[in-house]
Design brief:
Layout (H helix, E strand, L loop, with lengths): L1 E6 L2 E4 L4 E9 L3 E10 L6 E6 L5 E3 L7 E5 L5 E6 L8 E11 L2 E6 L3 E6 L1
Parallel strand pairs: 2-11
Antiparallel strand pairs: 1-3, 3-8, 4-5, 4-9, 5-6, 7-8, 9-10, 9-11
């Protein structure tokens, strides 16, 4: 099993910045993609950004130019630097990993961290 623990959420004013962190632990041999998704009240969970083990990144159009995703040197951590935050970025942010645990590859999710942007 893979456990993902997020940190770094909170309350910030519009235009401010936050940095989310996520660390993977448990029994896994490899992690391919890590990333962040978010879910606002009454909306479906949506992709924010992902990064593969070789450093390829993908961003939602709504965050391009404002958010930056990166992997730690140990490759089992992922960060999301969020700048120029807007009220519409308010959501619960979930860490995601596609990892090889035991004998299978599969998706894993963190518990989520709340990000609230006030206007």
């Amino acid at each position: 099993q893979v456990q993902l623990v997020e940190s770094g959420g909170g309350l910030v004013q519009a235009g401010g910045s936050l940095r989310l962190s996520c660390a993977a632990s448990g029994s896994f041999s490899s992690i391919n993609t890590m990333g962040w998704y978010r879910q606002a009240p009454g909306k479906q969970r949506e992709l924010v950004a992902t990064v593969t083990s070789d450093g390829s990144t993908n961003y939602a159009d709504s965050v391009k130019g404002r958010f930056t995703i990166s992997r730690g040197n140990a490759k089992n951590t992922v960060y999301l630097q969020m700048n120029s935050l807007k009220p519409e970025d308010t959501a619960v942010y979930y860490c995601y990993a596609y990892a090889h645990s035991m004998t299978n590859w599969g998706p894993y999710w963190g518990q989520g961290t709340q990000v609230t942007v006030s206007s």
